[in-house]
Amino acid sequence: MCAHPAATLATRTPSSPSTAAGTVASATVVDQLVAAKTRAMPGWLAMIWKPLFALRCLLYRAFGNGDDASFHAAFANEFKGVDASDANLEAMATDAYELCNATVFPEAANTMKMLKYDGYKVVLVTESPEFLVKPLAKALGASRVIGGVLEKETHADGAVVFTGKLTGPPVVGEEKARAALRFAEDARRDPSAYAASADDYVVEDP
Predict the structure, then answer these.
(1) Minimal CB count within 10 Å: which of 43, 71, 126, 194?
(2) Terminal alpha carbon distance of the chain
(3) Could you give the 3-state DSSP secondary structure of residue 195?
(4) Which tens digit of pLDDT belongs to each residue from 81-110?
């Protein structure tokens, strides 16, 4: 889910040159981050935090490296120290689902439904953290999510928290295509059967 298209992959079969189109939802990774970060904040604190965060985003865009990968790495740092227990992950994912589900494009949902009906397996490729997108993917009938994975660490007291880092490169731009190719290879598919496309979901050949 992102505000702008980025390269991902779509299955190509002999009878169909390419199958996949469009962004799934209008909610952005920023919207999801704000929902996740403010869910446990008192209302007054959230009112202060949101405009300050928006200002940080603008300043980073203006004075940072300016590329999407660096921007998303900076977003990952916003999760530093956040409770990464299963219960909190589920709660944050539920909030993200409620936010994103309301912004799903009907055309995208219908296309995915038709692809499922035709026997395809749909795989969402997103620049958002995977755990935030999984409930939406399930609701849309996708079989898997490929997205950013936030690193975790366990403290001496047993608490599990995010470190503020990604376990791999941000899934943005050309990395979306590379991530989908790795998925194809892991699934023992022929990578040459996948065609580049400017979409936010991919289709695994049945």
Answers:
(1) 43
(2) 24
(3) strand
(4) 999 999 999 999 999 899 888 888 888 888
